[in-house]
């Protein structure tokens, strides 16, 4: 089965410039998480983000800018990144769970959504977008 720690999804950032892996796990609080391994850096996202992002994109109905940004930088309004940290999303804030490493939602989640057959993303050098399938 793909998407486990033993057999993670092997992904590339939308421009295709960096490799990383993701897999499903359960954290010590018993919450399902998506673990993202980028080199030696490990990020965690709330497991609900996949279904929630897909639903939001379906309601949006068109292409949406990804707008990836580190946690310490503001996210451009109207982007996937901004939605992934907005108080108006279903979790009421950050889907990223590790303080200091909560950003980059708009970089790492879209390729996973594409592999799962839930979204289409552009693969340009910059300013990529996604939409629900």
Could you characterize what this model shows?
This protein has 133 residues and is of the alpha+beta class. The chain has one domain. The protein has helices spanning 49-60, 80-83, 105-115, and strands spanning 9-12, 19-26, 32-38, 41-46, 64-65, 119-121, 129-132. The strands form 2 sheets. Strands 1-2-3-4 form a 4-stranded antiparallel beta sheet, covered by helices on one side. It has a 3-stranded antiparallel beta sheet with strand order 5-7-6. Strand 6 (119-121) and strand 7 (129-132) form a beta hairpin. The radius of gyration is 13 Å and the shape is globular. The two termini are 23 Å apart. The model has no long low-confidence stretch (mean pLDDT 96).
Features of the shown structure:
alpha+beta, single chain, 4-stranded antiparallel β-sheet, 3-stranded antiparallel β-sheet, 133 residues
Question: In a few lines, what is going on in this structure?
Answer:
The chain has 133 residues and is an alpha+beta fold. The chain is built from 3 helices and 7 strands. The strands form 2 sheets. Strands 1-2-3-4 form a 4-stranded antiparallel beta sheet, covered by helices on one side. It has a 3-stranded antiparallel beta sheet with strand order 5-7-6.
């Amino acid at each position: 089965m793909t998407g486990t720690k033993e057999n993670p999804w092997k992904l590339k950032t939308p421009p295709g410039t960096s490799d990383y892996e993701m897999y499903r796990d359960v954290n010590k609080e018993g919450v399902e998480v998506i673990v993202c391994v980028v080199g030696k850096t490990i990020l965690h996202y709330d497991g609900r983000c996949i279904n929630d992002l897909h639903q939001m994109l379906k309601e949006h109905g068109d292409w949406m800018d990804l707008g990836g940004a580190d946690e310490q930088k503001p996210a451009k309004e109207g982007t996937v990144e901004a939605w992934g940290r907005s108080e108006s999303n279903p979790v009421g804030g950050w889907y990223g769970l590790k303080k200091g490493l909560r950003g980059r939602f708009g970089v790492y989640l879209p390729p996973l959504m594409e592999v799962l057959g839930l979204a289409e993303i552009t693969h340009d050098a910059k300013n990529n977008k996604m939409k629900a399938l």
